[in-house]
Amino acid sequence: MATAQKLRILGIIGSLRAKSYNRQLMINAQQIISHMDNAEIEIFEDIGQLPFVNEDKELDYCQNDDNVKRFKQSIEQSDAVLFATPEYNFSIPGVLKNAIDIGTRPGPKNSFINKAIGVMSASPGNLGGIRAQGVLRQTFFAFGPSTGYPEYILPRAGQAFDEQGKLKDAQAEKLLKSYLQQLVNLALKHKNSSPTTIKSNK
């Protein structure tokens, strides 16, 4: 009997810092997903290497820049995209917004179309990056019809991880597991009900 193909999730981290709380959160998510029978995750590590969006040059870099081609291909081959973003000045980092713009352009090929979307944020403050999540959600209008965006918020992230980068609090880990299962369930439902073709983003 053939084994069912696993759901493919692409992780995108909005921080370039090596020991970013959101990077640690994404790695914890990766470890949890690795124990799921029906899902797998790839983390795209190089959004900082993407060029700045420039309409005068985008046809060239979409055809010739290896990082751009790999990024857009990784999105297109995924069933779901999981973002982990810090909050900078009540918003998302510029590098993450640039990556989203690269992914949705040029107009004829929006790589984010027909993907289930998940959002996580970790912050040293008590709000856990919720304001950044609000800004990030506004960009999702470019991704096509909404399927709902499950969220995970980790406040006081400076005390949340041990020396190995693992979540210390059992309740936080339990909530993360529940959240990721919710995302997988949403993505499976979305995959089974959505067309597979990439539509125009005009």
From TrEMBL:
Pfam families: FMN_red (PF03358). It comes from the Eukaryota. One of its GO terms (cellular component) is cytosol. One of its GO terms (molecular function) is FMN binding. Residues 8-144 form the NADPH-dependent FMN reductase-like domain. InterPro entries: Flavoprotein-like_sf, FMN_Rdtase-like_dom, NAD(P)H-dep_reductase. This is NADPH-dependent FMN reductase-like domain-containing protein. It comes from Didymodactylos carnosus.
